[in-house]
Fold this protein.
Amino acid sequence: MLPQWSRGLRENVLRIPSTLKACFPSIQRKVNNVDLRGAYIMYDKFTGLDRVRTAHEEVMLAEKNFIDRQLERRACQTECFRLEEARNRLNIQLDSVSRSDENFLTLVTQLHELSRQHKDAREKLSSVESAEQLAFEQFSGCLRRSQAEERVQANRMRQWSIGLSVLAGLVGFSATWVRFRNQATVHPASTVAVAAADKEVLLPVLRELQHTNEQWKETIASLSGVIESLKTDLSK
């Protein structure tokens, strides 16, 4: 025969899953309607995600700049090759034309113009190659800073996770110790019976709480979707 307080505890504990189920839809609707932009910004600052995101944006911009410089350098190289081939063809024609020929002066003029254009193209190619090297160095620096920020943020989250896990373990141990000490002090004869009854009561409750936990996971997933959409809106 269980004590009166234990039966009352059992009834109250058994009501927890049904209470959570009843409150869950309204809580989910309220959560979906809450403006989380402020909380999202505070969470980013607290965890360091804002610095990580800023570093990622810098990496993307530096990568785009580097790719643009690469494309510009390839276009300049193509132009230089084209001018070189045209100049080589003119040199072959000049070798086969007599200096007294009427076309000789025209070919010389064309060769001079192609040589001038080739010189300008080579100078432009040199400046573009320097810009490409500078863009590559900037991209490498941004990438290293981004990786450093990611390591700092991961270490910070790991430290908070360990600290919170230790704190939760201490709180749970303290609550269990106080509970069983009170039971042993107030009802020493029924301690074993209460423990067995608690086990019988808590097993179905734990199953219900596990199901409720799955629902919370779905809510958190939906919150993640809302946060991502807010991030997209804010970036625009």
